[in-house]
Specification:
By secondary structure, the chain is of the alpha+beta class. The protein has two domains: 1-47; 65-205, Immunoglobulin-like (Sandwich), CATH 2.60.40. It has three helices and eleven strands; from the N terminus they run H-E-E-E-E-E-H-E-E-E-E-E-E-H. The strands form three sheets. The chain has a five-stranded mixed β-sheet. Strands 2-3-4-9 form a four-stranded antiparallel β-sheet, with no helix packed on it. A two-stranded antiparallel ribbon has the order 5-8. 18% of the residues are buried.
Length: 219
Amino acid sequence: MFFLLIVAIVAASTGGGGGGGGGGGKVAEKPKQEHKAAQQAQPEKKEAEQPQEEEPKPEPKPKPEYSVGQTAKVGNVEWKVSDAYLTNQLKSNFGTQKRGRFVVVDFTFTNNRSEEVTLDPDLHMVLKDSQGREFGTDTDALEFVPTDLFIFLEPVNPGVSTDGRVIYQVADDANGFTLKLDDVELMEDESAVFDLGNIPLQEYDSASASASASASPGP
């Protein structure tokens, strides 16, 4: 009986020690595993925190500024603003009139490309004031444009120059105008800016530029 009691005590001591050792082993391994996982995750965290380098953006090309009477070569086309003025009343050769505040621009366009181009003033001729507001052409004023200066959506063949006129209705407080003329290319972005800041206020001339130039002075 005493012998069995001793055997039971020894067995209990051995089992408890083994259990304690096993438990201690697991507790010791857990911090190591957590530390290893933290070390593996740390580089990924640093890599994720690194800011991505942005590609340098190309600097915008400076836009040359021209005056009325000058010619600007833009890509494979040329623009000459031959006249520009403000007027408060439009008159047609048919006796119709329209009151308001308008910017009238006479120009010559030359197509130096190898194919015809179609002019759309709202796309290729952008009028802005000193506040940055953009003004589109006045479609209601088309009847006041002389026939030989009407170029809206008219094709211009290669090597051909054509005269045109556009009319913009502007706000009463608009001033300091500029006119941006582009290269009429869909995938390009070349342009020239004409300074119209000092254009005069005058009576509207319903005659074409060529007719006015060829008219003989009165006595």
